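REQUEST FORM: STRUCTURE PREDICTION
Request ID: SP-0412
Submitted by: Lab K.M.
Chain count: 1
Length (residues): 286
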Amino acid sequence: MNEINYKAYAKINITLDVIGKRADGYHDLEMIMQNVDLYDEITVSKREDDKIVLFSGREDLPSDRGNIAYRAAEYMIEKFGLKTGVNININKNIPVAAGLAGGSTDCAAVLKAVNELYSLGLNSEELRKHGKTLGADVPYCIEGKTALAEGIGDKLTFLGNFPKMNVVLAKADIDVSTAFVYKNFKAENVEKRPETEKVISAIKNNDQKGICDGLCNVLESVTIPAHPIIKEIKEKLIYLGAENALMSGSGPTVFAFFKDKETADKAAEEIKNIFGIKEVYSTATI
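STATUS: Completed
RESULT:
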């Protein structure tokens, strides 16, 4: 085998709570994460020389060490003493810097691809340990599915099957700095915290209303005041028929759950027109 293809799925945060700040400067988190059916297509192939060549055709994506997918290949080659290089092709569909783990999921796909291409024999748990050294969301993206993530996001408890739900994703045309959001997070500014155990119970009981009622992300307390359009998009999605809406990660993407696909599709088109934004997707949980 000289080439392998992976679908690298986006994630949304059903809940996100900041438990406290660690001595190393990172924050301890508690969040429920879920994949949606929006994905980047990653192709990794062997080279005869020792170069890493990354191509995406996108000016907004680095093709060197500035891209975490490149660093994933570099890490695996150095860690396991591989006397080779790789080509990485990324067909990018997930919005960039959107709170959807687009970079982390590409990184995870490259780790899995190199593991398989070179028959390294690493299992998922071992891959997650390696992924942690590259980024906090990478361990989740190795496995995907539905999970409670704790610590910096690397301690995972898988929760079983999430109900199939229609989802609209809408990313405003703004840039949000994750570092800015966490630096400016203040617990005293949070009006509502997630009831994580209650949402976990709703997931296990296939209780879609319970899931929708439990959507909560404490980082909205920072990102929304800085970018009020996020709140406007949330409110408009609910007006257009969503059961509920929430910002994913540190933003700026908003996701919303809908009972039926037709209503979701119509809402996605309306959001594009009302806010003049291109990156709006009607998709579903997986």
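NOTES: The first strand starts at residue 3 and ends at 21.
Reviewed by: T.R.
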